[in-house]
From TrEMBL:
It is an enzyme of class 2 (transferase). It catalyses: an NDP-alpha-D-glucose + D-fructose = a ribonucleoside 5'-diphosphate + sucrose + H(+). GO terms for biological process: sucrose metabolic process. GO terms for molecular function: sucrose synthase activity. Its EC number is 2.4.1.13. Signal peptide: none annotated. InterPro entries: Glyco_trans_1, Sucrose_synth_GT-B1, Sucrose_synthase_pln/cyn, SUS_EPBD, SUS_N. Residues 547-713 form the Glycosyl transferase family domain. Residues 5-116 form the Sucrose synthase N-terminal domain. Residues 152-239 form the Sucrose synthase EPBD domain. It comes from the Eukaryota. Residues 262-535 form the Sucrose synthase first GT-B domain. This is Sucrose synthase.
Length: 797
């Protein structure tokens, strides 16, 4: 969305400090074509206007405001074009001529073309360069307008449905038609053809409600089923008289005058989702011994927990609907013949803690050749004895497959990204050519665009995943308008104001991660192993370093040894900070000790760095480094044992999309310090439910941790206060129960919403088909996969 208003004042602002501005712009342009980030601009302004007072004067007011909101500037002398981000999702683009300081407001497309001049001038000027514009299909579909509403899609879709179905009585006809389509195994649900108009439904509801109200509340549905059938009602309203009456009343109120709250409530009660397919294609998907293997991390934990919680919630809903249906969830992944000792070579596996949920592994290649998504969809339909009701994709690969299969089968589709790759590497779009042989971004970003546009709804873990923060653009927001010079220009990749975006944050399994104070539940059988793991003086394949003073509290961190996780950073902060070293010990879980054992470039580098830091800061005696751990029950107890020392958890990542370890630690009652870059900044309220730390400012962060432990020494109640603060936050916002409720409600409501915007959806789908066939398939075919390169469109987590 571009609004020119805020930059209208730029010419005046430049005029006010013309002398200095001319010098600054001369400096910006004298180095020739380049892309500058805010920090570069600020540095060059500082060097140009050396006098501090003078500089502050220039930067005060409008110009300062504009520059502070600038994300980047493209320099193509004599012009400098600024991409200005006023608020999450709200951008303006302006072009300034360096000599005259004349200002022109330009469109986002012109900005992209201008930026391309830096990388590929011929392509930028070629009027036949490929432009991708998904936005054209959204004309006529309602959108949000406020940054603050982003991520609350379901709430707004309920409002939009309200206005579509309200007004004249016949406006509600699409809802009646939709109810008439509901059935399970050939058996009609909710209503039958006797009630096929709004008027008939309204009348029948009045009669039926009077009838069921007269019965004792707990009268089972079967006792009055026959009577309701005579009036045109089928099963699905409730399991007893009271629940049936409530559902009928909600619908009656909607028919009389729709309102969003009733709309949402009604869709949450509708019997529509029983068979769910979750695609998670990359990495190793298994229930044991997979974490830490290439491309395998928190996402697996997320999906397994999600499935367990979803099955439980579906069973509850089915009971409340008065139905006798078995839910089924299939997590579809790839079968890996050489499974390194885990079960990734097994076709089917029951998911632990469930009765009706399985992992289905489909081989990518058989003697018949490479299998396509269709082979998976045939298997799914065979196992489910029909089409699924909802398909959920995960990550680039899973989301792409989910989009293809959902479109083929005509099923409602949700996508989950956890972390989109585009924002992980600065300017990965304009530099795609240089990075493609290593990361295949051309393929990956194309797949991401296809999936996010095809999806009926998108589940994110935090607001920042969609639209970032005041200072930083969101992951989806970075797909709004971008260019890969030489490949295509996405003038409208996605719209973060689309009501398909929803925040549903995950939780942690509370039977595994619970507070250390819940003594009777503790997994005592692991305690001697944990004692050995943390405190023995021995160094072996599992642990190195030791803790000389075991009376000190422990600061603990656990992560894959990726550069972005910044575990080496934390080790260095600790090494440097004497005060912190005097107060606490450091325990790290992650990676291996022998870099040659790792298959991952980044991990190898981190391992070497860890060894170097242990040497440099003489950390033995104060640091224990334990290799990656795979037993979540033992890990749960480990967090609690750290809490027993009145320690803390530290998550120092340079950027973290969500951060499951943060909520595992908080569930265990550990005061938690987590990065202010990404999801954890939203999970934790600084100083109330934990603390934010700045991964780019190690001294400040390590001092903040040291201050906490000093305060705890002075007042032991402070540790308990923070521990409780964290637990309160978790129970209010981050549980799987809250998550599954939201996701199942989305599946139901968006299933109807997509019928209401059918025409736009169909047009967009045809465009997606073309993009997939002409662009994606070509890119995928050209991939050369070597040992050194990562799998096609994969990501790590
Ligand atoms: N984990 C683990 N062993 C390790 C490191 C991590 O079991 O050695 C688990 C951790 O408990 C969490 C998940 O892996 O459940 C990591 O998820 P997170 O969201 O923190 O990061 P990701 O790896 O997905 O980037
Ligand atoms: C991927 C990530 O990068 C983490 O931040 C998340 O916590 C994890 O997936 C689960 O959503």
């Amino acid at each position: 969305m571009a609004s020119a208003a805020a930059v209208d004042t730029m010419p005046d602002a430049l005029r006010q400090s013309r002398y200095h501005m001319k010098r600054c712009f001369t400096r910006f342009t004298e180095k020739g074509r380049r892309l500058m980030k805010l920090q570069h601009l600020q540095e060059e302004i500082e060097q140009t206007i050396e006098d501090k007072a003078e500089r502050s004067k220039v930067m005060e007011g409008t110009l300062g405001d504009i520059l502070n909101s600038t994300q980047e500037a493209a320099v193509v002398p004599p012009y400098v074009a600024f991409a200005v981000r006023h608020n999450p999702g709200i951008w303006d683009y302006v072009k300034v001529e360096a000599d005259s300081l004349s200002v022109e407001i330009i469109t986002s497309t012109d900005y992209l073309k201008f930026k391309e001049m830096i990388y590929d001038e011929n392509w930028a000027n070629d009027e036949n360069s490929l432009e991708i514009d998904f936005g054209v299909f959204d004309i006529g579909t309602p959108k949000l307008t406020l940054s603050s509403s982003i991520g609350n899609g379901l709430g707004y879709v309920s409002k939009f449905m309200t206005s579509v179905l309200g007004g004249k009585p016949e406006s509600a006809k699409p809802l009646v038609d939709y109810l008439l389509t509901l059935e399970r195994n050939g058996e009609k649900l909710m209503i039958n053809e006797t009630i096929d108009t709004v008027m008939k439904l309204q009348e029948a509801l009045v009669i039926a409600e009077v009838f069921v109200s007269a019965m004792p509340k707990d009268t089972p549905y079967q006792n009055f089923e026959q009577k309701l059938k005579e009036w045109g009602f089928e099963k699905g309203w409730g399991d007893n008289a009271e629940r049936t009456r409530q559902t009928m009343r909600i619908l009656s109120e909607i028919m009389q005058a729709p309102d969003p709250a009733n709309m949402e409530a009604f869709f949450s009660r509708l019997p529509v989702i029983y068979n769910v397919v979750v695609f998670s294609v990359h990495g190793y998907f298994g229930q044991a011994d997979v974490l830490g293997l290439p491309d395998t991390g928190g996402q697996v934990v997320y999906i397994l927990d999600q499935v367990r919680a979803m099955e439980e919630e579906m069973l509850l809903r089915i009971k409340q609907q008065g139905l006798n249906v078995k839910p089924q969830i299939l997590v579809v992944t790839r079968l890996i013949p050489d499974a390194k000792g885990n079960k990734c070579n097994q076709e089917m596996e029951l998911i632990e803690g469930t009765t009706h949920s399985h992992i289905l592994r489909v081989p990518f290649i058989t003697e018949k050749g490479v299998l396509g998504p269709w082979d998976a969809s045939e298997k799914i339909v065979e196992l489910m004895e029909g089409k699924p009701d909802l398909i959920i994709g995960n990550y680039t690969d899973g989301n792409l497959v989910a989009s293809l299969v959902a479109s083929k089968l005509g099923v409602t589709q949700g996508t989950i990204a956890h972390a989109l790759e585009k924002t992980k590497y600065e300017d990965s779009d304009v530099n795609w050519r240089d990075l493609d042989s290593k990361y295949h971004f051309s393929c990956q970003f194309t797949a991401d665009l296809i999936a996010m546009n095809a999806a009926d709804f998108i589940i994110t873990s935090t607001y920042q995943e969609i639209a970032g923060s005041k200072k930083r653009a969101g992951q989806y927001e970075s797909h709004v308008s971008f260019t890969m010079p030489g490949l295509y220009r996405a003038v409208s990749g996605i719209d973060v104001f689309d009501p398909k975006f929803n925040i549903a944050s995950p939780g942690a399994d509370q039977s595994v991660y619970f507070p250390s104070s819940e003594k009777q539940k503790r997994f005592t059988k692991f305690q001697s192993a944990i004692e050995e793991l943390v405190y023995s003086k021995v160094e072996n394949d599992e642990h190195i370093g030791y803790l000389a003073d075991r009376k000190k509290p422990i600061i603990f961190s656990m992560a894959r040894l990726d550069i972005v996780k910044n575990i080496a950073g934390l080790t260095e902060w600790y090494g440097k900070n004497k005060r912190l070293r005097n107060l606490v010990n450091l325990v790290i879980v992650g990676g291996f000790f022998d870099p040659s054992k790792s298959k991952d470039r980044e991990e190898m580098a981190e391992i070497k760095k860890m060894h170097a830091l242990i040497q440099k800061y003489q950390l033995k005696g104060q640091l224990r480094w334990i290799v990656a751990q795979t037993d979540r029950y033992r890990n749960g107890e480990l967090y609690r044992c750290i809490a027993d020392t009145k320690g803390a958890f530290v998550q120092p990542a340079l950027y973290e999309a969500f951060g499951l370890t943060v909520i595992e630690a908080m569930n265990s009652g550990l005061p938690t310090f987590a990065t202010n870059q990404g999801g954890p900044a939203e999970i934790i309220v600084d100083g109330v439910s934990g603390f934010h730390i700045d991964p780019n400012n190690g001294d400040e962060s390590s001092n903040k941790i040291a201050d906490f432990f000093e305060k705890c020494k002075a007042d032991s109640r402070y540790w308990n206060k923070m521990s409780h603060g964290g637990l309160r936050r978790i129970n209010e916002c981050y549980t799987w129960k809250i998550y599954t409720n939201k996701v199942l409600n989305m599946g139901s409501a968006y299933g109807f919403w997509k019928q209401l915007i059918k025409d736009q959806k169909q047009a967009k789908q045809r465009y997606i088909d073309i993009f997939y066939n002409l662009q994606f398939r070509k890119l995928a075919k050209n991939l050369s996969i070597s040992e050194e390169t990562k799998p096609a469109t994969s990501s790590k987590t």
